[in-house]
């Protein structure tokens, strides 16, 4: 636990020192590098006991290293298998595969944050939200999926800058690469939607109604899905307990969404970004609700949670003309983030087995 708390303190201190003279592009680059470096060291140097799935990736390293492609193709996606094989050519130490996966995940995260944040916006909140609201702990557990998430979230980055045929081609290519690391990457096709269907208040309210309808129709939809993909039968839990932390996370999403609807005019071109993110936040809330129906939605929901990293700072930025409100939101977010972070570390499922933390040499 000490290492995780030290990391969050380190990120907070970096934020104070780097932005002491104002928000500039140079300050943003410097802060993001220092913050990502700190996270990388914690993730790359962890022992195999840190993270629920880390020990499985340790043992599979040797299995893949000494196996032929045909023997394990059904168990491992092609790009992950190839990456493991490549690392195995140079070392017998599985710690390197943990370090490499961490580097890929955090590089994707860094690009996602830097390329999508406003140039006059501090990147502190983006990193703080990533660390405190579950995503950080997930990256020490769901390694292949988190690689797919780090790659596929940049579909949004590409389409935000270029929606020409070339941009769409590059976005599709990212989806394919993500799928080749983890099958769940197919969910990234939904990241195209907000760029071709503009979100507004009416559509959001219809989306909420659709979310309620989907909750009741989901068992039938999932049965059809299992006919097409029977290997996912292991996720067929008809009753899944949703912890208080998940409900809190969903409630925060809902409050921020209504703040967006009430105070941010969708007709203003400068606000289109908020409403694109609002669509993805709505999908995040949908998966949280559907977790009561089925465990599979928990895994798919992680993809949409990354967009909270962009959505919350966008909401904060919109209150620049109301400095008192803005400061109150920041204090509330910082306190809530710390409380949620500490709660997660004390909850084995939310913390993904990241506590107790040990370095690999311990």
Series of H and E elements:
HHHHHHHHHHHHHHHHHH
Report how far the terminal alpha carbons are from each other.
15 Å
Q: Roughly what percent helix?
A: 55-70%
The share of residues in extended strands comes to: under 5%
Shape: globular
| SS class | mainly alpha
Number of helices: 18
Stretches with pLDDT under 50, minimum 5 residues: none
Residue-averaged pLDDT: 83
Q: What is the radius of gyration?
A: 20 Å
Structure description:
It is a single chain. This protein is 69% helix and 0% strand. The two termini are 15 Å apart. Helix 1 (2-18) packs antiparallel against helix 2 and helix 13 crosses helix 15. The protein is globular, with a radius of gyration of 20 Å. The protein folds into 2 domains: 1-141 and 324-355, no CATH class; 197-318, no CATH class. The longest helix has 28 residues, at 201-228. The protein is mainly α. The model has no long low-confidence stretch (mean pLDDT 83). The protein has helices at 2-18, 25-44, 54-65, 69-72, 78-88, 95-116, 124-132, 135-138, 143-152, 154-161, 165-181, 193-196, 201-228, 244-263, 272-290, 296-305, 308-317, 323-345. The chain is built from 18 helices and no strands.
Features:
single chain, 362 residues, 18 helices
Topology overview:
Layout: H1 2-18, H2 25-44, H3 54-65, H4 69-72, H5 78-88, H6 95-116, H7 124-132, H8 135-138, H9 143-152, H10 154-161, H11 165-181, H12 193-196, H13 201-228, H14 244-263, H15 272-290, H16 296-305, H17 308-317, H18 323-345
């Amino acid at each position: 636990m000490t290492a995780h708390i030290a990391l969050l303190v380190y990120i907070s201190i970096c934020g104070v020192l780097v932005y002491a003279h104002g928000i500039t592009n140079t300050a943003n680059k410097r802060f993001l590098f220092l913050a990502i470096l700190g996270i990388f060291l914690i993730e790359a140097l962890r022992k195999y006991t840190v993270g629920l799935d880390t020990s499985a990736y340790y043992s599979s390293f040797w299995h893949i290293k000494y196996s032929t492609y045909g023997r394990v193709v059904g168990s491992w996606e092609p790009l992950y298998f190839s990456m493991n094989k490549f690392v195995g050519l140079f070392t017998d130490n599985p710690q390197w595969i943990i370090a490499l996966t961490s580097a890929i995940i955090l590089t994707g995260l860094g690009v996602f944050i830097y390329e999508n944040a406003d140039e006059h916006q501090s990147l502190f909140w983006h990193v703080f939200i990533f660390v405190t609201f579950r995503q950080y702990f997930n990256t020490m557990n769901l390694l292949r999926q988190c690689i797919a998430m780090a790659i596929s979230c940049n579909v949004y980055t590409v389409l935000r800058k270029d929606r020409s045929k070339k941009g769409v081609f590059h976005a599709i290519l990212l989806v394919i690469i993500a799928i080749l690391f983890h099958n769940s990457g197919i969910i990234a096709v939904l990241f195209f939607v907000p760029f071709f269907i503009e979100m507004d208040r009416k559509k959001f309210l219809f989306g909420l109604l659709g979310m309620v309808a989907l909750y009741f129709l989901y068992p039938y939809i999932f049965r059809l899905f299992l006919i097409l993909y029977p290997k996912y039968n292991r996720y067929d839990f008809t009753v899944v307990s949703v912890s208080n932390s998940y409900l809190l996370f969903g409630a925060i999403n809902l409050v921020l969404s209504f703040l967006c609807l009430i105070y941010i005019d969708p007709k203003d071109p400068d606000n289109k970004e908020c409403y694109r993110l609002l669509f993805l936040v709505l999908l995040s809330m949908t998966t949280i609700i559907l977790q009561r129906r089925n465990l599979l939605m928990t895994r798919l929901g992680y993809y949409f949670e990354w967009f909270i990293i962009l959505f919350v700072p966008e909401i904060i930025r919109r209150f620049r003309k109301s400095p008192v409100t803005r400061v109150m939101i920041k204090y509330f977010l910082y306190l809530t983030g710390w409380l949620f972070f500490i709660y997660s570390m004390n909850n084995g499922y939310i913390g993904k087995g990241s506590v107790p933390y040990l370095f690999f040499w311990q």
